[in-house]
Design goal:
3 domains; Isoleucyl-tRNA Synthetase, Domain 1; alpha/beta; RNA-binding; Methionyl-trna Synthetase, domain 2; 17 strands; four-stranded parallel β-sheet
RNA sequence: GGCAGGGUAGCUCAGUGGUAGAGCAGCGGACUCAUAAGCCGCCGGUCGUGGGUUCAAAUCCCACCCCUGUCACCA
């Protein structure tokens, strides 16, 4: 069967796409906010692009450095390496459980990353974009370390409130400098911090303002908030930024005489996008076997890089990392930074520290991955924060996944199995107008849904696909094959044949969002191979194909789940 | 406080100058193949507030209120 969608999938030049996902911080397990904010949208996008036949590389890794990892290790009486290793393994298990299809998920604690990051540092220095300067900082004499602003508390110099943090006063909302605090106290040891001078390397961000403005000026496909927020930052003017810290856990500075300093975690973590690609190219996972293949993603002018991140990371991906790339001089700038807003939990921000969090490893002990993937895409925080409640989760699962989509598959397969010897019925030579219309609607949806997915409008794409499922339910209801089979067997055969074919199209269209259940449905349609390899088009269901016994794709959830889970959230 | 995004039906959200939309919830109906699912219809909104521009504003302008992010040493 030749259709418009076959042509669509056919004569295209494959594109090269780097899906670069934020590096999770290895000091705790992942929660629902991580999934909704970056990992799930990145995975759906990557899966879709692979189905289109594009060459996709999806990279990320654990961010193993930074002060909180060190502090946690000290509290537990262990090493930063041990803390990082524990959560790195947890992350790998979480990706596996939710089907987040990384081509490589490495960490910043590899010799490769350290080398790539150090080379990057040296190159920027050689090209004149790094300079050294003295800074006055607060030092904790008991904990024997320099203190980030957040680790200092004191009296607010603006409003006089007690307990103001070094970066901000929660009472009056002022942005502070820790040096301004009255009666400062270290949160690590309760000691009174001392002022100490320290020499650090600074990145000359101020040198890139005009180039960044010109670059972002052409990015009209960016999300409004990402673009305007960045343009606002550039308008206000960029300040040079220190990119080294007084620490001993992190990437060493590749110069003599800096043993007690490390490269700032954010400077080296964004380089991880590059180092992970380099690591992949040199690994067995690279089918070409060419260790230089990383260049296809970073120096080819036809490759596109997408950064999937949460909104709090926008400045690092639209200003700092692009500045570093410009300073490097030989790498591609990002094509898009589809930053998501936040997933709130019953109205409050999902946060590790404040409770009210769904831990992903715990979720997987009790539920299948697809319902959460569905819920978080249908209600994705693409343009504004979106709220997660267990009531809504159960409703989406029961009313939309089970009732509209899963039940459509189940009812069609059951009627077919029972009345047509468990094989795909043969349609008449000419399909009726309503049958042709439904098939056509399904095939056209590939273009609309694909266009939405390609522009990272995942919520809209999913909605459009689910509307086809609804149209199929309407078609079934109008033609009632369960009663037609008794009076006009050919009529019923046509209906079921058409419904099976539309379901086949939907299984492909929904696969990026629902990979686990769509893989099951694929087999139940009598298809061989896997959905992803079949490409972004409806795979025809051919008359006479034997159909295995159907099983429900999703589990209906009892309303009691809501109370159980809300009790867990409160604890 | 500055900058950015958001505020639309009971709930979750679409909708950027031309008669306010969808799904769910609620109410009613016809059906019964299916995980009591699916289908049809009804009910439901002074579009955050107050001004302004316009023949016409959810949409453009001004002021204000609320939520979120960010403001360079959290990452």
């Amino acid at each position: 069967m030749t259709t418009a969608t076959n042509a669509l999938a056919g004569d295209r030049t494959p594109e090269t796409i780097l899906v670069a996902v934020a590096w999770p911080y290895a000091n705790n397990h992942l929660h629902a906010g991580h999934l909704a904010g970056a990992y799930l949208p990145a995975d759906i996008f990557a899966r879709y692009q692979r189905m289109r036949g594009n060459r996709v590389l999806m990279v990320s890794g654990s961010d193993s450095h930074g002060t909180p990892v060190t502090v946690r290790a000290e509290q537990e009486g262990t090493t930063p390496e041990a803390v990082f290793q524990r959560y790195h393994q947890s992350f790998l298990d979480t990706w596996d459980g939710f089907g987040i299809s990384f081509d490589i998920f490495t960490s910043t604690d590899t010799p490769n990353h350290i080398k790539v990051a150090q080379d990057f540092f040296l190159r920027l220095r050689e090209r004149g974009y790094l300079y050294e300067a003295e800074q006055e900082l607060l030092y904790d004499p008991v904990a024997q370390r320099f203190l980030p602003d957040r680790y200092v508390e004191g009296t607010c110099p603006r409003c006089g409130a007690e307990g103001a943090r070094g970066d901000q006063c929660d009472n009056c909302g002022s942005t502070l400098d820790a040096l301004e605090l009255i009666n400062p106290i270290s949160k690590l040891s309760n000691a009174t911090p001392e002022r100490r001078a320290s020499s650090h390397f600074f990145l000359k961000l101020s040198a890139f303002t005009e180039q960044l403005q010109a670059w972002i000026g052409g990015k009209e496909h960016w999300r409004t908030n990402v673009r305007n927020f960045t343009l606002g930052m550039l308008r206000e003017g960029l300040k040079d930024r220190a990119i080294t810290r007084d620490l001993t856990w992190g990437v060493p500075i590749p110069l003599e005489g800096y043993d007690d300093k490390r490269i700032y975690v954010w400077f080296e973590a964004v380089i991880g996008y590059l180092s992970a690609t380099v690591e992949w190219a040199a690994s067995e996972a690279n089918p070409t076997g060419n260790a230089e293949a990383w260049r296809d993603f970073w120096t080819s002018d036809t490759s596109r890089t997408y950064h999937f991140i949460g909104k709090d990371n926008i400045p690092f991906h639209t200003v700092i990392w692009p500045s570093m790339i410009l300073g490097h001089g030989d790498l591609n700038l990002p094509y898009d930074v589809p930053a998501n807003q936040y997933l709130t939990m019953g109205g409050t921000k999902a946060s590790k520290s404040r409770g009210g969090v769904i831990w992903l490893p715990e979720y997987l002990e009790r539920y299948d991955p697809d319902p959460l993937r569905y819920m978080m895409t249908a209600n994705a925080p693409e343009t504004s924060d979106s709220d997660f409640t267990w009531t809504e989760f159960v409703r989406r699962n029961n009313d939309e996944l089970v009732a509209r989509w899963g039940n459509l598959v189940n009812r069609v397969l059951t009627i077919t199995g029972r009345n047509f010897d468990a094989a795909v019925p043969a349609p008449p030579a000419d399909l009726s107008p309503e049958s042709r219309a439904l098939i056509e609607r399904c095939d056209e949806a590939f273009e609309a849904v694909g266009n939405d997915f390609d522009h990272v409008n995942l919520r809209r794409g999913l909605t459009a696909a689910m509307e086809v499922a609804q149209a199929a339910n309407q078609y079934l209801d109008a033609r009632a094959p369960w009663s037609a089979v008794k009076t006009d067997r050919d009529h019923a055969a046509e209906t079921l044949y058409v419904a099976l074919n539309v379901i086949s199209g939907l299984v492909t269209m929904l696969h990026p969002v629902l990979p686990f259940s769509c893989a099951k449905a694929w087999t139940m349609l009598g298809h061989s191979g896997d959905v992803e390899a079949a490409g972004w088009q409806r795979t025809p269901v051919l008359p006479g194909t034997p159909l295995p016994a159907p099983a429900p794709l999703f589990k209906k959830l009892d309303d009691a789940v809501v109370a159980e889970e809300e009790a867990r959230l409160g604890s």
